[in-house]
Write a structure and sequence with these properties.
This protein has about 130 residues and is α+β, with helices and mostly antiparallel strands. Helices cover about 40% and strands about 25% of the residues. The protein is elongated, with a radius of gyration of 22 Å.
Length: about 130
């Protein structure tokens, strides 16, 4: 299953409530993901721009987005971002596939008016 990394922030009200009555949010996240066919790999409280980070498996993007929307619907989360993560094995396969696709793809501006892509000197030197 694909792996997803999500980060977000708690609202001020959620932080106030959890300082009064601390709770382990990983259990609630794990149960929700399991009910959608996914699995929580890790839940972390983080410092910096985001307050929390989760690593999860889900069958597809629709499933993980549905879970995030369900969690956000409660009103205690904001600024959520999610990234798909590829294993090193999948990364090698992805780069291999990209190499094959690149052989048949012409980049914008390539061989157009004799200008090679990425050559600022050639672009600046053109009349």
């Amino acid at each position: 299953m694909p792996i997803y990394i999500s980060q977000g922030r708690y609202t001020a009200a959620a932080i106030r409530a959890m300082t009064v009555k601390p709770e382990d949010r990983s259990q609630a996240v794990a149960e929700m993901l399991a009910s959608a066919g996914g699995r929580l790999i890790g839940w972390y409280l983080t410092l910096g721009r985001y307050d929390w980070l989760i690593i999860a498996e889900a069958p597809d993007e629709r499933t993980v987005v549905a879970a995030i929307l369900a969690a956000a619907a409660g009103g205690s989360l904001s600024d959520i971002t999610t990234t798909v993560a590829l294993s090193s094995e999948d990364a090698v396969k992805t780069f291999s596939q990209a190499g094959e696709l690149a052989k048949t793809f012409r980049s914008a501006g390539a061989d157009y008016y004799g200008v090679a892509v990425g050559s600022a000197r050639e672009i600046d030197a053109s009349p």
